[in-house]
Write a structure and sequence with these properties.
single chain, 153 residues
Length: 153
């Protein structure tokens, strides 16, 4: 259960808006068919489109074709209440045409009666992580090569 503490200077709605807009993780609200209703700046950067250009666009339309079919079915299962959440590694198509790997987590936002009202999407950009790992691996390989050369000498 989520416990809240009342603050005199911000409401729950304001805190939610601040959290969404400040999050380094992509965050958005979708309708039950998977169309963007809201998107934060991190989503805008990942997809190369302002939030206004995403509103009404199906999230699946932003995926690489190979990833799209499974996500359409997963969103339908979420909306129907057949699964509580979806967690998948996917490839987004940036508006400039390049692909970007990401971890996409989508869950249903349910009303008091348990019915799904909206979907909340969290998107973690994996591109930066992979670049960092690649840089680390290259540095380790260079260090290993130096050590091997020193031992051979």
């Amino acid at each position: 259960m989520l416990t809240t503490h009342a603050s005199s200077d911000t409401t729950g709605d304001e805190r939610f808006r601040l959290a969404m807009m400040s999050s380094a993780t992509g965050m958005g609200i979708l309708d039950l068919e998977g169309r963007w209703l809201e998107a934060n700046p991190a989503i805008e950067r990942m997809l190369g489109s302002p939030a206004a250009g995403l509103v009404g666009r199906d999230i699946v339309a932003s995926l690489v074709r190979d990833d799209a079919g499974g996500m359409t079915a997963a969103i339908a299962r979420l909306a129907a209440g057949d699964t509580p959440a979806v967690d998948a590694e996917i490839r987004f198509l940036h508006d400039d045409g390049r692909e970007s790997r990401a971890r996409l987590e989508i869950a249903a936002m349910r009303g008091d009666d348990g019915r799904a009202l909206y979907l909340v999407a969290h998107v973690h950009d994996l591109g930066a992580q992979r670049e960092e790992l690649q840089s680390r691996n290259e540095a380790l390989e260079q260090e290993a090569a130096k050590s091997a050369s020193a031992l051979a000498a």
